[in-house]
Amino acid sequence: MTGRLNSTQPYFLGLFRIVVGLLFACHGAASLFGVLGGAMGTHGSTIPAGTWPGWYAAVIQLAGGAFVLLGLGTRPAALIASGSMAYAYFDVHQKAALWPIENGGEASAMFCWAFLLLVFTGSGAFALDGLLTRRWAQRPTAEQTSVVTA
Fold first, then answer.
1. Which domain of life is it from (predicted)?
2. pTM for the complete prediction?
3. Which 8-state DSSP code applies to residue 51?
């Protein structure tokens, strides 16, 4: 049974990455554009451009979520996303109370750890990183394409 589960690991890791990236990107889109319930569920309102830290966090959420969703630069995007959620938890939520259930920081904590996991595991299956790496490896070198004339 363990062998069968291990053989499916890259596919489920890829699905995990896609779902986490999609949810994170939706959170950023809601804050930036007022879609999907708007910023913090305020039904259509947005975070004013350039305000610290909310607007910058929303940009990281949208862009980082999109990169992770697509599996493009997954590890660096996940590292930045994880750091932004750690900042959100410790700077915004933990001031209210110690435990995430008390301070409303469950989403920040879960996103932080989910993205940190992706930093160390990589993107799994279905990622553009893997497709681009395979294409780059299959690209003919200059030596293979040059014609030697005598």
1. Bacteria
2. 0.82
3. -
